[in-house]
Amino acid sequence: MFTNNEIEQQVAEFLLQIKAIKLQPNNPFTWASGWKSPIYCDNRVTLSHPTIRTYIRQQLVAAIQDKFGSVGCIAGVATAGIPQGALVAQELGLPFIYVRSKPKEHGTGSMIEGDAATTSGKRVVVIEDLLSTGKSSLQAVEALRAAGYDVAGLAAIFTYGFDIADENFKQANCPYVTLSNYNALIKYAEEHQFINEKDVNLLRQWRENPSTWGEMAAS
């Protein structure tokens, strides 16, 4: 049985190796929010690597069983949480549904896709690929609760570990678990020469003040 630390480090290694996570502290990315960021994470890349995809699926299943116990349904958050959630549901032999970011503008106008007649009311775990502030994930949680689901919590591959995310999940009374996190990633990246000491300092500064880091880095 792997320890949590071993899982965190292994997932961090995989994400760096296949460039699902890219670190560019000296040439930052711009997020949709407008934040400047030295890190970019796209966990959909893992789907193209069967060995890594399998490992992540197995560890998500183990984390769900350990953290939430018995559940009756798995829900993926559109779009990146859909394939991960479907893989987990298949492994557990459970029904799968997914939650849109907003209701369909045609047909039934549904926000939740799947067989509501057989899944509504079930104890469900939500699957996400990545947590930043948690806003979009919790929007899905609230949609499920409004539709009559008993949300046990959420499981994700990676979190940036922002304090605002912890607060948002606490306010929503929604526990969550992730396979790896920002601190574990930086530790692995430094120990295996993906980044140098100067980069580590920049990355840690960003983690402390992500919304204003770009302004500080430019000054």
Keywords:
45% helix, Rossmann fold, 219 residues, 6-stranded mixed β-sheet, globular, 10 strands, two-stranded antiparallel ribbon, 9 helices, alpha/beta
Roughly how many Å apart are the termini? Answer: 47 Å
What is the count of structural domains?
A: 1
* Number of helical regions: 9
CATH architecture group name:
3-Layer(aba) Sandwich
Neighbour order of strands in the largest sheet: 7-6-5-8-9-10
Enzyme class: transferase
EC number: 2.4.2.10
Cofactor: Mg(2+)
Catalytic activity: orotidine 5'-phosphate + diphosphate = orotate + 5-phospho-alpha-D-ribose 1-diphosphate
Provide a descriptive summary of the structure in words.
The chain is of the alpha/beta class and 219 residues long. It has a single domain (4-208), classed as Rossmann fold (3-Layer(aba) Sandwich). It has helices at 4-17, 50-68, 81-92, 116-119, 135-146, 163-171, 182-191, 197-208, 213-218, and strands at 21-23, 29-30, 36-37, 39-41, 73-77, 96-99, 112-113, 123-131, 150-159, 176-181. A six-stranded mixed β-sheet has the order 7-6-5-8-9-10, with helices on both faces. A two-stranded antiparallel sheet has the order 1-4. Strands 2-3 form a two-stranded antiparallel ribbon. Helix 1 crosses helix 7 (182-191) and helix 2 crosses helix 3 (81-92). The chain is globular. The termini are far apart. The mean pLDDT is 93.
